[in-house]
Amino acid sequence: MKNLTRAFTVFLFYFAATALTAAEEAEPPVTARDVPNDAGGAVDITWLASPLEKEEGFQGYDVQRRAPGKEAFETIAEITPGEAVYQDKEAEDGVPYEYRVRALPAEGPPVVLGVSGAAASGQWFNTRRTNVLVGVIFVTTVIVFFIYRAKGGAELFVRKIAGLEAVDEAIGRATEMGKPILYVTGLGDASEISTIAAMTILAKVATKTAEYETPLIVPCYDPIVMMVEKEMVREAYAEVGKPDAFDEDSVFYVTTSQFGYVAAVDGIMVRERPATNFYMGAFYAESLILAETGAATGAIQIAGTDRVTQLPFFITACDYTLMGEELYAATAYLSRDPLFLGSLKGQDWSKAVIITAMVIGTALLIVSVHLGTGFAKLFETGAG
Amino acid sequence: MHLSTDIFIWIAALLTLCIYSFLYKDNPFYKFAEHLLVGVSAGYLFVIYFWNNMWPNLLIPLRDGFGILLTEGRFTGNLAALVPGTLGLLLLTRLIPKIGWISRWAFGFYFGAFQGIVITGYMQAFILAQVYGTFMKGGNPVFSLVLMGDFFTRPAWGPFVLAVSGPLMIAGVVCTLTYFFFSTEHRGFAGGVAKVGIVFLMIGFGASFGYTVMARVSLLIGRLQFLIRDWLGLIS
Question: Any idea which fold A156-336 has?
Fold first, then answer.
């Protein structure tokens, strides 16, 4: 009997302790916390839905805030029924605010759900983007490694790219015909990767035109791009020892209006009759107009863009087309410069890692959806 | 037929015809419209840039800051605006050949800063998100034996598409990426995979071509509507 009493007492104690822990661990009715991984100035407030929601005419909630040293709460938001989250985007960093959420019944005074405190703060590191950091470090390391290998004299193989093999032939044709070469770098500004690639290809083309003294026409859409291209062409002429052959007016600004630019370039094509047209860079709706007019004038045409929607038009209307990555590879291919070559190799092996990751991921999905999904999450990036 | 009496519609219609005359061949009407369009657009855009960028972001903060400095003896303007302002002025040194090289500092800053800023965005949007999107759609795996099992237990078009689209997408991405691998010749196994990649690319381009041509035709229809309805009044 004594043992039974003891066992009962222990059970009561255990039950009471469990209930107490459960009560302690239960989600508080209102929770305010600093928004993680942000630049600061924001606090998330969440609350448990009020039982009043089930009543007819329930009006929703109001979220109130009180700064330290203040007596009264002030309403900062009114929330519709069914919602249980609000983000205060006007919180001052480091100020410990108190947040109160009240349910608003159809009739009668508001019912306080609870009060919670939090201070907003900014974070230096966004933990949701750790994989971005790892990716950048990995790709950069691979690229730097290959640049050093290329600089060390290692033979780095790059396969043939048909469109680039044709560059010399196209320049030679214009030279033989005594006609100019038209080089269009599209509508991108100097921040576009494809425009930068187009500018570096232009430097190589200009070196050849300088050697052969073939006239070069470069109409520009963007004034900054025009200035950089003029500088590059000037340097190309100086590089081959013919700085005086460079014509300042060969690289010129047209307009930053899409169809105004197209009208002008079309006019140049039919009046100057260039023997070779290059379209390299970022293109939009004007791609087919330019390529069709060029084809009608009988020019040999080489295009290159990373705009997927414009590639079909270039493929149909041009003699050679560099698709996406081929445009980026062009500089390394044409110049064989260790910097560009190493960079291309680095990108290539980064692609190989991506392909491997895809094969591994697929295999894991076949073996176990749980494992495959877990693997895929390594590549998930937070929006914030 | 109710010809428009609005002078601006007449101007727009005649300029439209001038531009379309290029379809026949280059001619003075096209040249006129071309030069007008280039000149007006360049001038108009300069004014837009000035009032939308230079005025609110550079000139107003400096004007207000220096105004208060002169009247109250304290500077409250945004001195940081002087950094892009100075870099912009450096670009103009190109107009003086002797010191034109200074403009390269501005170019260097512009290119360097921009590449630094976008590198994480590119890694996130063009690499990681793409890889994740190849495996997962709406939080569910695109390739799953369960989906395939669904098709075999319930053979129908819907389950078939669900079962096949995932593997097809993964195969397409891997084959296309192999095509853009420049470090090996397209021979043997790699060549075969790259050829399949090209087939995927061409199917994609074909679909894109048809879609975009439809959009272009709608632009032409819009212009013809303007001529026939707004200008000639042949339709209401």
Answer: Rossmann fold (3.40.50)
Closest Cβ–Cβ partner in A136, A196, A308 for B120: A136
Tell me the shortest Cα–Cα distance from B80 to chain A, in angstroms: 20
d(CA A54, CA A82): 10
Instruction: Please report, as a single letter, which amino acid is at residue B6.
Output: D
pLDDT, position A384: 45
Candidates A71, A296, A378, A345; CA nearest to B24 is: A296
What CATH architecture does domain A26-119 belong to? Sandwich (2.60)
Asked if residues A48 and A29 have their Cβ atoms less than 8 Å apart, the reply is: yes
Instruction: Give the pair of three-digit tokens for residue A169.
Output: 């032939």
Mean pLDDT of B82-105: 89
Instruction: Count interface pairs A-B at CB distance under 8 A.
Output: 176
CA B37 to each of CA A186, B153, B230: distance values in angstroms, whole numbers, following the listed order: 18, 64, 21
Residues A2-30 pLDDT 10s: 554 555 454 444 444 444 444 445 678 99
**Domain ranges within chain A, ordered by starting residue:** 26-119, 156-336
Distance from CA of A8 to the nearest CA of B (A): 49
Convert the pLDDT of each residue in A106-145 to its tens digit.
988 999 999 999 999 999 999 989 999 999 999 999 999 9
Interchain contact, A159 vs B186, CB within 8 Å: yes
- Closest Cβ–Cβ partner in B38, B124, B170 for A132: B124
Query: From CA A219, how far away is CA B34, in angstroms rounded?
Result: 14
Say which of B107, B118, B182 has its CB closest to residue A329.
B182
Nearest of A235, A238, A239 to residue A227 by alpha carbon: A235
Q: Do B42 and A260 touch (CB under 8 A)?
A: yes
Kindly give, in sequence order, each residue whose CB lies less than 8 Å from that of residue B106, ignoring residues fewer than 6 positions away. B87, B88, B90, B91
Mean of pLDDT values over A194-203: 93
Average pLDDT over residues A279-303: 95
pLDDT reported for residue A365: 86
Contacts of B125 (CB under 8 A, 6+ apart): none
pLDDT at A173 over 50: yes
Closest approach of A74 to chain B, Cα-based (Å): 32
Which pLDDT belongs to residue A3?
A: 54
Q: What is the mean pLDDT of residues B132-152?
A: 85
Token code pair at residue A266: 């079309």
Flag if A365 and B141 touch (Cβ within 8 Å): yes
Nearest to B141 among A224, A349, A369 (CB): A369
CA distance B228 to chain A (A): 22
